[in-house]
Amino acid sequence: MPNIAIVTDSTAQFPNPNFAGKNNVRILPFDIILNGVRRIEGQDVKTADFPLTVRSSTDPKMVIPNPEDLAEFFSSLLRTYNELLVILSSADLTLAYHNSIEAIKLIQANTAIQVINSQTFSSGLGILVQHGAELIARGANLVEADRLLRQLIPHVYTLICSPCLSYLHNSGAIEFHQATVGEILNLYPIFSLEEGNLHALCKVRNFRHAQDFFQEFIEEFEALSHISLIKGTNFQGIDNRLLRQFVMEFFPETPFSEHRLNPFHATLFGPKSVGLIVVEKPFSLSG
Questions:
Q1: Which of 33, 42, 60, 199 has the most CB atoms lying inside 10 A of its own CB?
Q2: How far apart are CA 15 and CA 127, in angstroms?
Q3: Burial grade of 282 (CB within 10 A; 0-12, 13-18, 19 or more)
């Protein structure tokens, strides 16, 4: 069996906590700056600690390891593993992908490390990691696992709804005046991640209307292998029981998972955010 580790980052969330190959998955930790204090690996930080509106572009903030630190991290893993498959959150959301590419140049390990831009985050990233770990556990080599995961990525669809528009301004998704006016009007924009980039789809008045949009989005697919709901704080209007019932009725064979928006996600979208991630068939977690 190939001696390969899978590396992902702190934004990943796993629908299946006990997937095959989990023992060979390593998490690249991020730090968080909140209220002027750098919290190592986000320790003792809760999503509820984040303000609904931010006035600084540097606080709250997710801190990504620089290329030098990543080079040391990868080098330490290569003392145990022959190869690394690195699957990271969207390169347009964090610097983890770009910094990893630079780190590989520093240690000249191009043939031993493959880096994938997942173009998603949270359970979308977690599903890709699970799938990669299972492929390797069944004997896939680095090239095969890399190829199959890249084929799966375009079939992972990600939606985000957030009224915390100042966070979206800090993430570069909207202009400052849009964030200011939107928060005054209490708008709830819905974005999709298209090739990893945030693209505005529409604006709704509340999370109940966002859930209606999510259901209409799900209905566009004929077959799905997974559906995830990501919930932040103060998400009144999102009724997970109704959404779960809807999924059971229209996609009875499709697993449905729920995840709390973690502090790393909150630095990007704000604590009062909800998300939907769906994975389209014919690809499945079993390969």
A1: 60
A2: 7
A3: exposed
pLDDT at 181: 84
With 60 as the cut, is the pLDDT of residue 257 above it? yes
C-alpha 136/C-alpha 5 separation (Å) is 9
For the cut 80, the answer to whether the pLDDT of residue 47 exceeds it is: yes
CA distance 136 to 130: 10
Buried b (16+ CB within 10 A) or exposed e, 231-254: bbbebebbeeeebeebbeeebeeb
Dump pLDDT digits (tens) for 145-180: 999 999 999 999 999 999 999 999 888 888 888 888
For residue range 81-96, what is the model confidence (pLDDT) as tens digits?
Answer: 999 999 999 999 999 9
Please state whether the peptide bond connecting residue 60 to the residue before it is cis, i.e. omega within 30 degrees of 0. Answer: yes
Whole-number Å distance between alpha carbons of 264 and 240: 22
Q: Could you state, in order of their start, the residue ranges of all structural domains in the chain?
A: 4-29+64-153, 156-280
> Is it true that domain 4-29+64-153 has CATH number 3.40.50.20?
no
Mean pLDDT score of the chain, rounded to an integer? 93
Written out in words, the top-level CATH class of the domain with range 156-280 is alpha beta
| Single-letter amino acid code for the residue at 2 | P
The tens digit of pLDDT for each residue in 169-215 reads 888 888 888 888 888 888 899 999 999 899 999 999 999 999 999 99
Of 233, 274, 268, give the one whose Cα is nearest residue 60: 268
β-pair partners for 60: none
- Given this chain, do its domains 4-29+64-153 and 156-280 carry the same CATH topology? no
List C-alpha distances in Å: 147 to 116, 152, 153.
Answer: 10, 9, 10
